[in-house]
Amino acid sequence: MLQGAQNHPVIEAIRNPSEGDRVVLVIEGGGMRGAVSGGMGLALHELGLGDRFDAVYGSSAGALNGLWLLSGRAEDGVPTWTDETLGKVVMDKRRIIGSRPIVDMQTVIEQHYERISPGLFQAALEAETEFHPLATDIETGLAVDLHEQVSDRESLILALRSTSTLPMIGGPPVSMGGRRYLDAGLSAAIPFQAAIDDGATHLLLLRSRKAGDVASDPSGLGGRLTTRMLGRISPAVRDGYLTRGQREGADEAFLARHDLETGLSPSILQIRPHPESPVPSRLESDLEVVRAGLESGRQAVHESFRNPVPR
């Protein structure tokens, strides 16, 4: 987050877009770290800005947060990050034994989302804001924007599962449109490039990581084991995992330049949690840490727009 962000061209375009502007929201995920960007989305909703974007691009948990926001249901969905009962449905490490995945997004999306907020999927389909969930194609290892494949409730659910199904611990790849997909974090953890390719002129990035918290290439025994297991799914996914740190490092360098030079085109503003705030780990189980991370994201957006934080 930049000092004086309330005068940034992106915030100006959100509030008062000019003809020809394409103003988009890009939401980072990161497993349970998505609570941070979820809190940011909730703050946009509280500010009455949830429908001010031409499109929402999201990876993994970021796409799920985007669904709640563009459907106008952020107040229903974002608090589920700290719901103990639902949390046990999402993740239970004891399921390492048995057929059900440790991280079960299929059950959450298919059985619980519309229990929490009836009519959610139809509201998202009818929203004026375009929805662009990204996922990783396991045959190529590349990020794919699933926007054009979403046309009804069934395809929307498949897209949500595709963007959020973790390899190995989240169940098998999701089949959609003749391709198979896994979590977008493998190929595009920060899906801003898809937005730029679509002609975005102004991008607001909701980051779940603090400044300086960057991915690294795998190392050690854990890295070798993960690499081997990913290779059994797909050599392309394995290769993408091995080079993830390099790719994300290049992304961070690109975004850092836009932080320093606000006159660049397209205009990009990143909002991150405060450097001293707690941020959940990818598989965080301490709901107090998750709750604090959500609130830190919420406060970061209110501070960027210089609004008092509602209590």
Architecture blueprint of SSEs:
Layout: H1 9-15, E1 23-27, H2 34-46, E2 55-59, H3 61-70, H4 74-77, H5 84-90, H6 105-116, H7 120-126, E3 130-137, E4 143-145, H8 153-164, E5 174-176, E6 179-182, H9 192-197, E7 202-206, H10 220-233, H11 235-242, H12 244-260, E8 267-271, H13 287-304
Parallel strand pairs: 1-2, 1-7, 2-3, 7-8
Antiparallel strand pairs: 3-4, 3-6, 5-6
Descriptive overview:
With 311 residues, the chain is of the alpha/beta class. It has 13 helices and eight strands. Strands 1, 2, 3, 4, 5, 6, 7 and 8 form an eight-stranded mixed beta sheet that branches. Strand 3 and strand 4 form a beta hairpin. Helix 2 crosses helix 13. The protein is globular. The protein starts with 8 loop residues before the first helix and ends in a 7-residue tail after the last helix.
Question: Which characteristics define this entry?
Answer:
311 residues; alpha/beta; globular; 13 helices
Short account of what is shown:
The protein has 311 residues and is of the alpha/beta class. It is built from 13 helices and eight strands.
**Major β-sheet, in short?**
8 strands, mixed
Q: Pairing-aware structural class of the strands and helices?
A: alpha/beta
Summarize the helix and strand pattern as letters. HEHEHHHHHEEHEEHEHHHEH
Beta percentage is 5-15%
Mean pLDDT: 93
> Number of DSSP strands?
8
Low-confidence segments, given as residue ranges, are: none
Terminal Cα separation, in Å? 22 Å
Radius of gyration: 18 Å
**In one word, what is the shape?**
globular
Helix proportion of residues, in percent? 40-55%
**What oligomeric state do these chains adopt?**
single chain
What is the count of helical runs? 13
